[in-house]
Design goal:
Shape of chain A: globular
Order of helices and strands of chain A: HHHHEEHHEEH
Strand order of the largest sheet of chain A: 1-2
Structural class of chain A: alpha+beta
Largest interface: A-B, 49 and 49 residues
Helix content of chain A: 40-55%
Oligomer: homodimer
Mean pLDDT of chain A: 89
Strand content of chain A: 5-15%
């Protein structure tokens, strides 16, 4: 999907942005981090057409960010699971979230919370649990709806 | 420049990506982190036309990411300095860099290095200095050319 516009640049940031430098890529990664796996769940979350979503999912499978797993044979249906390569991007999402919370706060509080699974502590800028101090990895962290979203949904 | 495509989404990640979700924004931030300040330096680094760069810089000034400072009166010329709001995005760039280094390595080694200024230690995933252990902030960190870039430039 993305042309290597910055092909003459020897730079890992530029290279990373060739893969995740479109907003929808990071929003799809956010959704799989939120636990959405199925086509219709993702489509509803992102508000895009079936064609657009199919193309994006196929591209992310090709790039090794998502793995397709069949969960139904008739009709044939697939779930999309994040690979390790994708999960390793969680700090990028975490820092975008913290920056967004800080500079564009919602009156009701943060829309999403990043928490240490099981413990319930929030994630700090050092990717540690604010409650127990543990240094967190992608598999330790869950994202869930925060006050602003709960308020919106009533 | 960016439409609020995800306006119906109450999400700080989506909101952050409305501001920095185009590749060129993060690449411009990388360049100002590298110490580039002047129009022609930025244009050379990014390989874009004057018109495109002017528009992007104006947009980033409007969004409060860059500050315009006059350094010459005749002819009138400006430098572009990152604001605190922009500098706070350094962890996003740092994690994109680490992810890019890991998944798209260059044979000569990393193109850019993130270092603790003065100390020279590398920055780890917890945004600490690998050498002295200090927890780093944006102002403690410098980005400089690494082996792959030095090799390319001969």
């Amino acid at each position: 999907v993305l042309a290597r516009t910055y092909d003459d640049q020897t730079c890992s940031i530029a290279r990373a942005l060739e893969v995740v430098g479109e907003r929808w890529t990071l929003l799809l990664l956010r959704d799989v981090m939120l636990g959405l796996r199925r086509f219709d769940e993702l489509r509803e979350s992102l508000g895009v057409t079936r064609t657009v979503l199919s193309r994006r999912l196929a591209w992310m499978v090709d790039e090794g960010l998502l793995e397709r797993r069949r969960y139904s044979e008739r009709p044939e249906r697939f779930e999309y699971w994040p690979t390790d390569k994708a999960t390793e991007l969680w700090p990028v999402l975490a820092h975008l979230l913290m920056w967004g919370d800080r500079h564009y706060p919602e009156p009701e509080g943060p829309p999403r919370l990043l928490e240490h699974a099981g413990c319930g502590g929030r994630v700090d800028r050092r990717l540690r649990c604010e409650r127990c101090g543990r240094e967190l990895e992608g598999e330790d962290v869950v994202m869930r709806d925060g006050p602003a979203l709960t308020a919106t949904r009533g």
